[in-house]
Amino acid sequence: MRIDGKGLIDRDHAVRFTFDGQTVDGFRGDTVASALLGAGHRLMGRSFKYHRPRGVVTAGSDEPNALMTIGQGRHQRPNTRATVQEIYDGLQVRSQNRWPSLRFDVMQVNDLLSPFFAAGFYYKTFMWPRAFWERVYEPVIRRAAGLGALSGQNAPDTSERAFAHCDVLVIGAGPTGLMAALTAARAGADVILAEEDSRAGGRLLSETEQVDDMPGPQWVGDMLAKLTALPNVRIMERTTITGAYDGGTYGALERVSLHTAPGDAPPECFWRIAARRAILATGALERTIAFPMNDRPGIMQAGAVRAYLNRWGVVPGQSVAVFANNDDAHRTAADLAAAGVRIAAVIDSRADATTPGDWPFYPGAEVIGTKGRLGLTEITLRQNGTTREIRTEALAVSGGWNPALHLTCHMNGRPDWRNDIAAFVPKPDAIPGLTAAGAANGTFSTARCLAEGAKAGEDAAKVLGFKKKKTDLPQASDTSYTLEPLWAVDTPGRAWLDLQNDVTTKDVRLAAKENYRSVEHMKRYTTQGMATDQGKGSNVAALAILADATGRTIPETGTTTFRPPYVPVSISAMAAGASGMGFAPQRFTTSHDATTERGAPMIEAGLWYRPSYVPKPGETTWRQSCDREVTMVRTSVGIADVSTLGKIDIQGPDAARFLDFVYTNTFSTLKEGRVRYGLMLREDGHVMDDGTTARLGPDHYLMTTTTAAAGQVMQHLDFVAQCLRPDLNVRFTSVTEHWAQFAVAGPRALDVVNSVLDQPVDDEDFPFMACGAVSVSGTPGRLFRISFSGERGYEIAVPAAYGESLFRLLLAQAETSGGGPYGMEALNVLRVEKGFITHSEIHGRTTAFDIGMQGMLSKKKDFIGRAAAHRPGLLDENRQRLVGLRPTGASRQLTAGAHLFPANGPRTPDTDQGYITSVAWSPTLETYLGLAFVRNGPARLGETLKMVDHVRGITTTVQVTDPVAYDPEGGRMRG
Amino acid sequence: MASLIAKTPAQGLLPVEIGSTRLEERLYDAITWVAPFDGQDDAVASAIGLPFPAAGQTTGGGDRRAVWTGPGQALILGPAVAPEGAAHADQSSGWAVLSLTGPAARDALARLTPIDLRDASFPEAATARTLLGHMTVSLTRTGPETYEIMVFRSMTRTAIHDLTRAMKGVAARAAL
Questions:
Q1: Is residue A669 within 8 Å of A663, Cβ to Cβ?
Q2: In 10 A of CB A131, how many CB atoms?
Q3: I want to staple A476 with a disulfide (CB 3.0 to 4.6 A). Which of A311, A446, A461, B3 is the partner?
Q4: How far B169 CA sits from the closest chain A CA (Å)?
Q5: Separation of alpha carbons A424 and A417, rounded Å
């Protein structure tokens, strides 16, 4: 119902939206909740477990009942609080958790079965029969559970993530926060003032308080004008601080454009804010009182009734009753009466209370029951043993206020209990750098909130070295807060505590009776506090009931801890930008376009995109292309982009000594113009990486690493240079990106190489493992004669600006000799045929000895990993050591990952002889080839083993061979 | 004899203007990594004609700048240098240099970079090795509203994707 002349909404701008398909009219500034109340809708949802009719209870972020689904299709957002969602033209709002309609919900039958749904019922049911667990119970429970539903479509990834920095973060822009922001900013600090609501002002927007002789909202407007005039103040409205983290970092969720129709602007932004100091000015959240049937639509927090009246100009009914244990009862009645609303009753649980108006007044009384299934119609009160029914459409309830201290517990702190306000308050320094002030700190008078806020801002600025400037304190009321704790009315009947998870006082007492006496157990057993509102309206009351039921005080019973986030945060906000291509950086080589133009499918190696194979027209399977490419390299020539391998440029008087320290073999003896294969160990004696290093000059080397380990090796070298050997005069940097590098491999490789060089080279200039500077079609480059294919091979490098051009030229030249590009599959087959290892073999648990390279461990010098590598256990011949495999079974198959067992006898973990690391179909030898690690493998050549692939269900026989299947002498490479 | 054709990292992808923010490619004649050997800092500085920058700093400006990139090392942007007494390597093809400019450039960067971009912590001529999204970059403030972002050549497309996404979000917010 609308009250003329009340509210801060903009009555000049009408707004129309729909609720469950019905048109509703409101005004700009209305939330869904205020507009629905204004239009006479009290019924807004159905409770989670019992499907009881529910209405809105609060006017803010702590709303447990009025959860709506807004929007359609991809833009659908479930569990949106009607108290937070601002209305706009065309907004579609739907209630949740009911079928077929809100007024008639089939599942309300659960309410009749409530005795079977008491706390912990799911621990005692759904047990038998076992076969039903997955096939019946789980699907049925899944369908019944939950409140709102997702659309099932991919959500648009249009939100943002961002970072912000400040000197002082003020959390909350009520009277406390506004003063804190002003004093801190006037002292010179950079201030971020974050306000969860759509506008600053806090409770001043909802009360009829005067500050400095003007209405609260007007004073707020003046403060905002002062703050926005300061260049060092940043006001962030619609921004909830969601979490307090290490080092003064705070998470925050900003509702950027959810108050407008979906468009180009990000719906939300998730912020990470770094603040040197922070002030918690989050105010307090009201709690109600538990009494039987206290959950009907129309029963609300008294503070919410005042907010709806004063800020939005609406009331939840033609008549309102009030029930409280503190003076808010009278303040509520006074505001309502001044607006012309009929007061049905003022019920104050304190026997000695008085009231300032001539409305029906019942001191020392309590509400013990209510009527009105789809909306409150009547309450029953008890006073001095007599009961009375009172007809009313709304009941405003206040049990007192709980400081909103959740953030202070995010680093595992627990709050302190204060008996005088019967509430928890923040423990000082629970979050380093964060100070609480105002109602968040248990201070409830406006004047004292203003003073505390001003001081908190000054103190924060002072600690940071700023000089405070005098700020006058505004005049405001300084009424004291007196209450008599009343958590639950002592009378039989179901009384709700946690409205969202449908937890009653009976459930908490049952938990205690069944010996779930600790607050942590009570929470999980009853699910109190575990819904989307995280128990904001019920935690303290449930705790009080538990304390009473277990004969302890409230501080003795303690609290569960609070964890971020303070409000639900959509994953699309926290992960903004991370869907699809945005998930990870994509690294493209200079040959990328030329390769994808030919239809090559790409695979990811680290973050790099490399071609799997490069199909020719007519080829329909990867094997066709791969087999052709292997044969092409062995008989003609192939071109592959090897730019992705790490290239580290190492220079300095001590460069050689540095390499001798990190490699197992010796590089100080390498001649200029030559390349050597090197092995690098970790300090524990296992292989870290292998690669080739070239000597380009007296003090100049170029190291290569495997693609995916490039970053790791670079980090390792940095660690060695900075921490282990700072005595060495050596400098190095990654040049992976600067050089585009292409392998040219095959019997015709030299012809192709010479076709692009300005000066041709021969085997005298470039014997196997030589390197040097060359001129490549007018561009200075480098040539290396190394081979990973086992054929005559070269790698030719030019600055990446020329990479694409050189690649296309090489392809054109190769194709004139029957050659062409080859991809990663063929590259892998070629090296398996030669028994060359990759990180499939040096996977982190193998040593030089395991791969047969113990000869590369120099006896003449120290190197990283030397001592550990010589431990007897790492040199035991019965270790699993590198061999080759060929299939001998009828199926002629080998699969990577399969395990190897003796040909006869049991196959158990004890008899496991090893495993296969790499497998390839060799078109050259027309058989599958494998590389494997087998116990004492090199001594068992010729032996037959059983291959068992437990994952794919394949069992066959194999023969142990030397790892090198093709051209064991290496003549084709060296020739 | 054929001549190889050169391409810049962002060829064909820039410039892009969204709202008041402009993203374009910046080209230098050369980019050289320089790391003086022990005790050679002064000699190297005079050889390259610029003071060797301290951590977080750049020296020079305009078409000739030295950018600190790590302990004892810098990238020299502008003319090619080969100073004695230092390790040096041509990195001209290794980096994409992107220039982001406009009154909202800082806001766009704030979507991607965790460092403190306020004037006191990141004034003109300041530089940082930091993150842009998931990429490590060298970020330099070259003017009141201008930033130069150096990113690995291979990640140019991702950098442009992430920056234009941020620019769009900032512009769309301003239009609300």
A1: no
A2: 8
A3: A446
A4: 6
A5: 4
Chain A: residue whose CA lies nearest to B37: A729
Tell me which residues of chain A, numbers 267 to 296, contact chain B at a CB-CB cutoff of 8 Å.
269, 272, 274
User: Domain for residue B11, yes or no?
Assistant: no
Picking from B113, B133, B172, the nearest residue to A266 by CB comes out as B172
Edge-to-edge strand list for the sheet holding A361-363: A299-301, A394-398, A319-324, A342-348, A361-363
Q: Pick the residue from chain B with its C-alpha nearest to A266.
A: B169
Number of other residues whose CB lies within 10 A of the CB of residue A135 = 9
pLDDT in tens, A302-338: 999 999 999 999 999 999 999 999 999 999 999 999 9
Does the distance separating the beta carbons of A740 and B1 come in below 8 Å? no
Q: Which of A112-126, A910-924, B111-125 has the lowest mean pLDDT?
A: A112-126
Residue A700: pLDDT band (50, 70, 90) is very high
Q: Is residue B2 part of a domain?
A: no
Greater confidence (A507 vs A140) lies with A507
- For A714-742, what is each residue's pLDDT tens digit? 999 999 999 999 999 999 999 999 999 99
Distance from CA of A727 to the nearest CA of B (A): 10
Q: What are the tens digits of pLDDT across the range A441-464?
A: 999 999 999 999 999 999 999 999
Q: How many domains does chain B have?
A: 1
* Residue in B4, B168, B176 nearest the CB of A260: B176
Q: Which residues pair with A587 in a beta bridge?
A: A608
Contact state of A585 with B155 under an 8 Å Cβ cutoff: yes
B115 within some domain: yes
CATH code of the domain in which B72 resides: 3.30.1360.120
Closest CA to A740 of A639, A625, A636: A639
Distance CA A53, CA B153 (A): 61
Q: Which residue of A has its CA nearest to B35?
A: A731
Instruction: For B2, list phi and psi in degrees, rounded to 5.
Output: -70, 155
Q: Do A800 and B93 touch (CB under 8 A)?
A: yes
CB pairs under 8 A between A and B: 146
Q: What is the DSSP letter of A135?
A: I
Structural domain range at position B118: 16-175
Percentages helix, strand, coil for chain B (3-state, rounded to 5) are: 20, 40, 40
Above 0.90 for ipTM, yes or no? yes
| Spatial CB neighbours of B44, under 8 Å, sequence gap ≥ 6 | B34, B36, B52, B83, B85, B86
Cβ–Cβ below 8 Å for A274 and B116: yes
pLDDT band at residue A634 using 50, 70 and 90 as cut-offs:
very high
Q: Among residues of chain B, what percentage have pLDDT more than 70?
A: 99
Whether the upstream peptide bond of residue B15 has omega within 30° of 0, thus cis, is yes
Determine the 3-state secondary structure of A915 from DSSP. Answer: strand
Percent of chain B with pLDDT over 90: 97
Residue among B153, B166, B176 whose CB faces A265 most closely: B176
User: CA A545, CA A519: separation in Å to the nearest integer?
Assistant: 11
Residues 39-98 of A with CB under 8 A from B: none
**Are residues B162 and A722, on separate chains, in Cβ contact within 8 Å?**
no
User: Which residues does B97 contact at the CB level (< 8 Å), separation at least 6?
Assistant: B25, B26, B27, B28, B31, B77, B148, B149, B150
Residue B1 is predicted with a pLDDT of 66
Nearest CA to A794 out of A671, A647, A637 is that of A637
Tens of pLDDT, residues A469-478 = 999 999 999 9
Q: Is A266 on the interface with B (CB under 8 A)?
A: yes
Exposed/middle/buried for A90, CB within 10 Å: 0-12, 13-18, 19+? exposed
* Average pLDDT of the residues in A56-67: 97
User: Given an 8 Å threshold on Cβ–Cβ distance, is B113 in contact with A739?
Assistant: no
Mutation target to probe the A interface, by most A beta carbons within 10 A, among B73, B153, B162, B165 is: B153
